[in-house]
Amino acid sequence: MRKQVGAVTGADRGAVTRAYLYIWVAMRWRDEHGAGSVLAVALVAVLAGILSLLGPLASAYAAKHRAGHAADAAALAAADVARGIAPGHPCETAAALAAAHGGALSGCLQEGFVVTVRVSVPVLGLAVLPLAAHAVATAGPPG
Questions:
Q1: Which of 34, 41, 91, 130 has its Cβ near the most Cβ atoms within 10 Å?
Q2: Please, what is the Cα angle at 115 between 134 and 111, to 5 degrees?
Q3: Distance in angstroms (rounded) separating the CA atoms of residues 122 and 125
Q4: Which residues face 104 on adjacent strands?
Q5: Which residues pair with 44 in a beta bridge?
């Protein structure tokens, strides 16, 4: 039986396979230079997009709480004026207190000693945009 030239015997087959594997890995590794940088840039872009959406949401959340606090304070002050504890007109006092808290009085209803106010606070601090957080509060004598 004659041996073919260039033929790989069983013992050499493993060595040749390992050599091809090493060459293949080396070529793939050489071709992948810079892929980590592209992945890092893509990750930063995704995180920046997510954070750019969280900013307005956080601002809306804060505006809603500011509106609630302003409405509560305005309703309590207006109820004190309605009961005669403080001088003035209840709705004017409520408007002044809402403005002091960064909001605007958008509604005021007095029924005896009970006063209900509605306060609007601009979202993102821009009065130009039609985005506003609203809150309603009612105050009066206990009982």
A1: 91
A2: 130
A3: 5
A4: 120
A5: none
| SS3 annotation, the chain | CCCCCCCCCHHHHHHHHHHHHHHHHHHHHHHCCCHHHHHHHHHHHHHHHHHHHHHHHHHHHHHHHHHHHHHHHHHHHHHHHHHCCCCCCHHHHHHHHHHHCCCEEEEEEEECCEEEEEEEEEHHHCCCCCCEEEEEEEECCCC
For position 17, what pLDDT does the model report? Answer: 75
Is the pLDDT at 139 greater than 90? The verdict is yes
Q: How many residues does the chain have?
A: 143
The residue whose two tokens read 């590794």 is: 29
Side by side, the strands of the sheet bearing 114-122 are 104-111, 114-122, 132-139
Q: Is the pLDDT of residue 6 over 60?
A: no
- CB-side exposure of 32: number of CA atoms within 13 Å? 8
